[in-house]
Specification:
disordered N terminus, globular, about 5% strand, 2 domains, 22 helices, Serine Threonine Protein Phosphatase 5, Tetratricopeptide repeat, four-stranded mixed β-sheet, mainly alpha
């Protein structure tokens, strides 16, 4: 019965994917941003009893305002929402609310709660289904459950009772973590009035997190009950918030927009980081490298600065210097999978027998730690191909396509991998995961 339910859930999600437009919803993976988000989330997750090492906060490449959960191991936040918020406590309130949905068991009743934390195909399905439920594209009309319920109501929208429960629990987590819950009221206030708009104009957050005036007043009451407390200093959390938001907007907004605002950055190092990214994207390699070198000199022990320096040098085709910068970042953060991935990419760019061998080792380690980086999977496929391991190259290529929701392409490569890998081996089983998801798709 458990297997049948899992296959049914996969099939239902794939029905959503079949109706999605060509533009897929993906993740924005950056080691600096993810370190910042998980540092900010840690006290909330620990207060919720979930454990900071168990739940990961990831950024979805969408400009709309939304946040959601589809399993017990990930909290997804749209880039648009992260860019819109004003301080760490507001972000922590969003994380606390989504953590409450996990801790209170609200996801247990979702058909989409199927192995999403365990396979690349599962994450790809979850993101595609979330895009549909949030109103991205036409997929919300593609689900046939034998009722008139829309995809967003069945898959991702929470009931008002669940929202009230998550509000109360989220405030409790914030207080337990020593965080002023006023941020929760401020976030909900952003979305007030949304329900008066037509569905097509509402932010996805409003459609999946129903908001009423009664709920807003109740949340105000929850927060006001703790209004007379003296809250611990939030300087560290606000620094990481400003750094994550600054880097995100530097990569997603026009360089001219970033350069006009860089001087108002919270700290000097964030200003230099934003300017380096903006110059790099203009592109102005000379200014970008000079600025990132200045930042690296100011923060020599910061692995994420060296990682950004490596990226700028690599994309400026200075491969040797890039591999040195990434190598320094790896020394400082040897178990960060995205830094390892960048290091592997720079070694592949050198394309010598020795660098290819070292690239394969770095990329394999990155994949073992984190299975959800499409960039790592792409580069790992190249490294396997150069090493003559064609079965493994096909496997990670299949997983990369699955992660992006391209199940037909994923199945082609998984089938090839199945024929090349030892039957019954762990890689062979991974190929079966992709094939199972693809076969469950409606014809």
């Amino acid at each position: 019965m458990r297997h049948a339910a899992r296959v049914l859930a996969t099939a239902l999600c794939l029905t959503l994917i079949a109706s999605l437009p060509a533009r897929a919803v993906g993740l924005l993976r950056d080691p600096d941003i993810e370190y910042a988000l998980n540092t900010i989330a840690a006290p909330i997750l620990n207060a919720a009893g979930l454990g900071a090492n168990r739940v990961k906060v990831l950024v979805v490449n969408e400009s709309s305002l939304n946040a959601f959960v589809v399993d017990a191991e990930h909290i997804f936040i749209h880039a648009g929402l992260l860019s819109r918020l004003e301080n760490a406590s507001q972000l922590q309130s969003v994380i606390a609310h989504e953590a409450a949905h996990i801790a209170n068991g609200h996801m247990a009743r979702r058909l989409t709660n199927m192995r999403t934390a365990r396979t690349a195909a599962g994450i790809g399905l979850a993101l595609a289904a979330a895009a549909a439920a949030g109103g991205e594209g036409r997929a919300a009309t593609g689900l046939a459950l034998g009722t008139q319920s829309s995809a967003q109501r069945v898959l991702f929208a929470h009931t008002r009772a669940e929202e009230a429960s998550a509000d109360q629990a989220g405030v409790r987590y914030m207080v337990s973590a020593g965080i002023n819950p006023a941020g929760a009221v401020e976030v909900v206030d952003i979305f007030r009035g949304q329900e008066a708009l037509s569905v097509s104009r509402q932010d996805p957050y409003t459609r999946t997190h129903p908001l009423t005036q009664d709920r807003f007043r109740a949340l105000q009451g929850f927060a006001a009950a703790y209004g007379d407390r003296a809250w611990p200093d939030a300087t560290t959390a606000n620094y990481w918030f400003a750094r994550a938001q600054g880097k995100l907007t530097a990569f997603t907004r026009a360089p001219s927009w970033t350069l006009r605002r860089a001087k108002s950055s919270a700290t000097e190092d964030i200003r230099l980081m934003r300017q380096a990214v903006a110059y790099h994207r203009q592109p102005n390699a000379k200014k970008a490298i000079a600025t990132i070198d200045k930042l690296a000199a100011a923060r020599p022990q910061d692995p994420y600065v060296h990682e950004l320096r490596g990226q700028i040098l690599l994309e400026s085709r200075n491969f040797s210097a890039a591999s040195n910068a990434y190598g320094r970042a790896v020394q400082l953060a040897p178990n960060d999978p995205l830094i390892l991935g960048g290091y592997g990419r720079s070694l592949l760019a050198l394309d010598t027998a020795d660098s290819n061998k070292r690239a394969l080792a770095a990329l394999e380690k990155a994949r073992r730690i984190d299975r959800y980086s499409a960039g790592v999977l792409r580069d790992l496929g190249m490294a396997y191909a150069r090493a003559g391991q064609n079965g493994m190259a096909s496997l990670v290529t299949a997983e990369r396509y699955a992660l992006n929701g391209r199940l037909n392409d994923a199945a082609l490569h998984a089938k090839r991998a199945e024929g090349l890998l030892p039957r019954g081996s762990a890689p062979w089983q991974r190929a079966q995961d992709v094939l199972t998801a693809a076969k469950a798709a409606p014809k």
